Amino acid sequence: MEQHHHRKRRRLGILVGVAPIVLLVGDLLLTRARHKVPIAYDTTRATSPVNADGTIDYVAALDAEFGNGVTDDNNAARFLVQAFGPAGLPSKHGDAVARRLHIPVPPEKGAYLVTFDDFQAAATQPSELDLVSWPVGNLTQVAEWVKVNQTPLNLILQAAPRPRFFMPMRAGEPQTIVSAQLPQLNRLRESAMLLAAHTRLRAGAGDFAAARADLQAMHRLARLLSQSPTVIGCLLGGGIEALACHTSRSIAQHANLDAVTAEPFLRDALALQQLSSLAQAVDKGERYTVLECSMNVAIRGPVVTSLYGGGPTPAEHEPPGYYLVPIRHADAMRLENATFDSLVAAYGKKTRAERTAAFQAVTQACESAPPVLVAAAAPQVLLSIYLPAVVQEQGNMDRVTAELRMTQITWALTMYRLKNRKFPATLEELSPQLLPAVPLDPFTEASFVYAWKESGYTLYSVGRNGRDDHGARTAPADDIDASTD
Asked: What order of strands is seen across the sheet that includes strand 449-453?
């Protein structure tokens, strides 16, 4: 009898000892399972292609979406890469990108775009590129620089009328969005400066038909870049558009025009639509960047993800204790998607004031969302870094809109002066004869500041601070000036 009780107590002791181990193992399995994110629209958004480790190949997904409908005939990138040479391709897998574009791999040496800095490196008296003086500063050197670039310039002019711009990001082995190289962006910026110099030289020489063609190419180049899957590409498009507007206004204010030669420039300016918002790049490229990071953190851990840029990593490098932390990664990605959905909706608001209010609401909603981590709210931390940049970047695009609208007004003012031998007393006198309606300052949805002077006029936007700083542009003032000299 005593032996029976002893065996019973021993079995009970074993059960008591084993039970915590079983519960711990079960808890670890459940915790480990939470690190596996289910592939679905509300979590990963993109659902294919899937890498061998179960993550989404977001680079390939972006390529598939932004490359849809692109052909050899309609893709401007094919001509631009030939103008840029190897410098326009990633240092790694550049050959693979060229093959995806169906163009020959550019040889190391050729008649490629020469930047002004590189051109000046061989000069006995180097100078900076002056695109403010009329038609340009250091005219002889700039004219020689343009002449040296005639072959790539012709290719750029062939590229500009194409309706699509697609540079594959995926080439060769799997990679992440953050590790993708975009060397073509720097060359595109240089291309815009080359076009601006060429336009000014032609207008200064009185070749207005050629200057118009160059100017239109600059505006088209800006609109091609607005198709970029990344915000940085779209912002570069905005920078090129602003440069085109500055160039256009310089011609209107300084070139030896008459009403016959000025009228086509006015018509071209009025035909321009403002650049697309950042909504598409935020909806796809930026969303996928954040989701890609979250998915890699779930599977590989934060340390490994930061060390390897989110790319494939050896399994032995996974942090040993990371999977013991019960993080709800799927919930984190749902929160990220909901935030991006709200951001995209905010971009659709009609006025800057409405967009700003919507952005603030998104930020507050993100900050008040319940934590999805045991000790910290990782998605909130990630998004809190990202959201202020989004508002800042949209302000930059609003600035570009102001530049375009003031360019349209500038050409109308020029036409008015050529017809009436003076500038109008108010902008309202330009409509409806020269403008269907006078464009408004996007920062205030009110008229731009304008004042007629005997020698010219004052025209400016109050800028993002919404305050009239009397045309001042030095911080804290931020007016955007389009006045005559």
From this structure: 449-453, 456-461, 480-481
Are 41 and 47 in contact, with CB atoms under 8 Å apart? yes
| pLDDT (0 to 100) of residue 170 | 80
Please state the rounded mean pLDDT for residues 225-247.
96
With cut-offs at 50, 70 and 90, classify the pLDDT of residue 450. very high
As given in the structure block, the two tokens for residue 296 are: 């890699």
Rounded Cα–Cα distance for residues 227 and 239 (Å): 14
Q: How confident is the model over 355-376, as a mean pLDDT? A: 73
Contact criterion met (CB below 8 Å) for 461 and 479: yes
Q: Identify the CA nearest to 383 among candidates 418, 431, 334, 427.
A: 334
- HSE, side-chain direction, 13 A CA sphere, residue 317: 16
pLDDT tens, 90-129? Answer: 988 889 999 999 999 999 999 999 999 999 987 777 788 9
Tokens of 136: 């340009």
Distance CA 201, CA 197 (A): 6
